[in-house]
Amino acid sequence: MLKYIFLAMVAALTASVDPAAAQTKKGNNGGPVVASQGHPIEFVHKGQEIIFYIGDDDGSPLPTKEMKGRATIQQGGKTVTVQLKPSSPNMMIGKAETELAPQARVVFSASLHGHSLTARYMVE
User: Fold this and answer.
1) How far apart are alpha carbons 114 and 31 in whole angstroms?
2) Alpha carbon distance, N-terminus to C-terminus of the chain
3) What is the pTM of this model?
């Protein structure tokens, strides 16, 4: 019985680990980078402006001209969705209602040609 409880705990812990949420390095623009399906996505915020730099699976800039996306922001007990617009050469840009506070959570979701990308960030 104890063996099954231990296995259930291990399964629960490993299921809650999300590799797309691991912010392990800084990108060229100073923001955290998260890989989603092999694509590096860097998140930068300046005041209310939020910017995502999208890389191709080889690390080169991925054109975002036809990309559709949004950012979901959780902070202060409130959740808001910000529509993102493509900007040359490889950016998705939006404007939050308020400046992002430390510990705010940001989830990037986008699609391009049937390919979905998702990345999670914690504002530092």
Assistant:
1) 27
2) 43
3) 0.80
